[in-house]
Amino acid sequence: MFRINKLTDYAVVLLVDMARTQRVRAAHDIAAETGVPVPTVAKVMKALVRGGLVRSTRGASGGYVLARPADRIVMADMIEALEGPIAMTACVDHADDGCEREGFCPMAGHWNRVNHAVRRALVGITLADVAGSCHPPVWANRASQGSGTSTGPRDSGGAVYLASE
Amino acid sequence: MFRINKLTDYAVVLLVDMARTQRVRAAHDIAAETGVPVPTVAKVMKALVRGGLVRSTRGASGGYVLARPADRIVMADMIEALEGPIAMTACVDHADDGCEREGFCPMAGHWNRVNHAVRRALVGITLADVAGSCHPPVWANRASQGSGTSTGPRDSGGAVYLASE
DNA sequence: TAGAAATGGGACTGATTTGGTCCCGATTTG
DNA sequence: CAAATCGGGACCAAATCAGTCCCATTTCTA
Ligand code: FES
Ligand code: FES
């Protein structure tokens, strides 16, 4: 029903990986381990840093680490970091610019209810939950082999949706 | 966080309008009352009919009516009708085509949890809820005046997002 | 029976968003 | 100083979306 950005999908994959190995690692390193193309990792990381989910260290031997423990990073954070600001239709409270139709809008701010319901759902799931009971990185071995650039994804249709049932 | 199609937004507006006046009305009629351009109403209605939310009558004096009472139409229905099938990433159960990465995917089907959480939220809100405590169609008067074609929306940014807060 | 009124199903095009890649300046290590 | 990294965009190709139109089909009404 809702479509989630492919980049957001990647973000979750990277975050899960970071949640496992709690230490500073360079982007290319994370890329190798997850199979996500390096430039893409870089792009996603930028967003993640801006969103405050990840802390970066510059300079040689720099890299990225989770900014807080995995159980304090929720789904909503991740999605927001990648998907940008947010605000549902002009109808939503957030639209600070204000909606000129508000006075005669048949919805009259009822999207808000939907918004909050969904957000509540998304706040209820932490990175720890998602990374949790997962098989150890079996695939870590497979990394750094392959044709170099685009080993990983790209095959599976990719983009993320919201389940129907 | 999630972006909702503009068409889906329109769909909700139209459904709310239909929920109020429970009788068969032609597309152009509904268009006039809501301010949504006629061709767009037609397009949305087609999706709504295919989705089984609305029943159509063809021929002269035909039109559209809600297929069931408003309190039995949930947000998830509306969104699914417009946004198509659904399934979140290849990771999701639904992806019947099966995901070849499943064996070594760091998420290992955990999107499912997210999916279901969101869907549950969306199933909990009915059209009746949304249309409910709303001011009467004040704006109905404003209809059918204006330059004819694109009176209504188009001004407000339009597309729908999911609230951040 | 003929004609008008509606929906059904697509085709089509322009605009917008995404996905992915690169480049270059800033920062830190050693 | 040189090497390793991140930071911030610019950029372009591909996919999606939005919005319009057109024409066949169905049904009511004169
Ligand atoms: S269109 Fe702005 S309040 Fe609904
Ligand atoms: S990518 Fe297919 S199961 Fe995760």
From TrEMBL, chains A, B:
Residues 142-153 have a biased composition (Polar residues). It comes from the Bacteria. GO terms for cellular component: cytosol. Pfam families: Rrf2. InterPro entries: ArsR-like_HTH (IPR011991), SUF_FeS_clus_asmbl_reg (IPR014290), TR_Rrf2-type_CS (IPR030489), Tscrpt_reg_Rrf2 (IPR000944), WH-like_DNA-bd_sf (IPR036388), WH_DNA-bd_sf (IPR036390). CDD domains: HTH_ARSR. Residues 141-165 are annotated as: Disordered. NCBIfam families: rrf2_super, suf_reg_Xantho. SUPFAM superfamilies: Winged helix' DNA-binding domain (SSF46785). This is SUF system Fe-S cluster assembly regulator. GO terms for molecular function: DNA-binding transcription factor activity. It comes from Roseospira marina.
